[in-house]
Amino acid sequence: MDKLRISGGRPLEGTVRISGAKNAALPVMAATLLAPGVHRLRNVPRLRDTQTFARVLELLGAKVAFEDHLLMIDTLGVNSVEAPYELVKTMRASIYVLGPLLARFGRARVSLPGGCAWGPRPVNLHLTGLQAMGAALDIEHGYIVGNNVKLKGATVGFDVVSVGATVQLMMAAVLADGQTVLENVALEPDVTALGEVLIACGARIEGLGSRRLTIQGVSALRPIDATIIPDRIEAATFAAAAAMTRGKIRLEGVVPDHFEAALRKLEESGCAVQRGADSVTVTGPARPQAVNVVTQPFPGFPTDMQAQMIAVCALAGGTSVIEDTIYFDRFTHVPELARMGARIELKGNVAVVKGVDRLYGAQVMATDLRASASLVNAALAAQGETLIDRIYHLDRGYEALEKKLGALGAQIRRVN
Ligand code: UD1
Q: Which residues form the pocket of ligand 1, taking CB atoms under 6 Å from any ligand atom?
């Protein structure tokens, strides 16, 4: 199994080009099922998760070809409606095929994703929303099964803000019969980007960027030709690395507004941040200051940056309090950071971080994608050498990470 060997203690300096966003690419890949034809997706990150999603589409009968970051998907030959457990269990976003399959074929057989490393991640809102639109869905042997479904417009109000459920219901509603109103939708850039892609293909969606979407179903959509938005979490992760290493990193090809909440917290911790039209330069302080963070749906501070922010606070002057309100159990990085000398006390979904002067290299284990990113950042700042095991998690979500960090002056090597 691959590991990362990192010698820490050097400031990261230079320019890094941010890749397309995994969390924006996956819903658009699912949306290709809505229209038979050849779809072109540009700026798609080459990651384990986009490969896995491509495999899901191939199993359904699509033809998929990557040319560098251009992904071509031909959905003319789609002839299966089954997303098997073997793939869904490795990538929960596979469940996004459910709405498009029901909308285009009236049938679907999609594995329930099951649990995840940080506790239950329910899909009840996806299912009740589709049921409100007339889909009779059964759970059979671990699969969500729908047959003879004719989706009809409905009013669906979400009691919690969910990226997944918003995306799922948007895709179902664009081809449904009549008007759908979705209330309390997620505003994450990935959601808005999907809406824009669908509109460009002929979907009728009003209210993008607000908490209420009104969607008039149309009978058919044109194939997609779209560019995936930049990855705000990748960008913010590099920004956090600058904060921890007294570095100066220019992030290129970004939309600064998409990670403004993270940038503000980094400023509060002492970073200097210069925002350009499509670039951001982050200069880390001599030592970060403690900050308090509460994760919230967009435009709040993202749960996907909680682990990396805890790593920043581990080195900060003072005590920080970090609360995750989206996923209560998402703290597997805490005991690993403790092995590097961090002083963190966990009380339920709240981490109290007492900053230390220095972190030390150690052998640690990655447990999920963002937890792994926090360990990489901690290792870059730590004194001595860190060996991070199970880095396949990082390969799910960070494109060419060693190459990008190496170009910024990090001493980082993949070993097995
Ligand atoms: C969430 C994050 C997203 C992040 C992703 C991976 C939010 C709002 N969403 O998206 O930014 O990229 O994790 O880290 O921050 N929920 C239900 N029932 C459902 C669906 C969700 O109760 O059917 C709950 C979840 O348990 C969670 C909240 O709603 O507490 C947000 O879930 P959702 O946005 O759907 O999760 P992801 O799509 O995984």
A: 23, 121-126, 160-165, 186, 188, 297, 302-304, 326-327
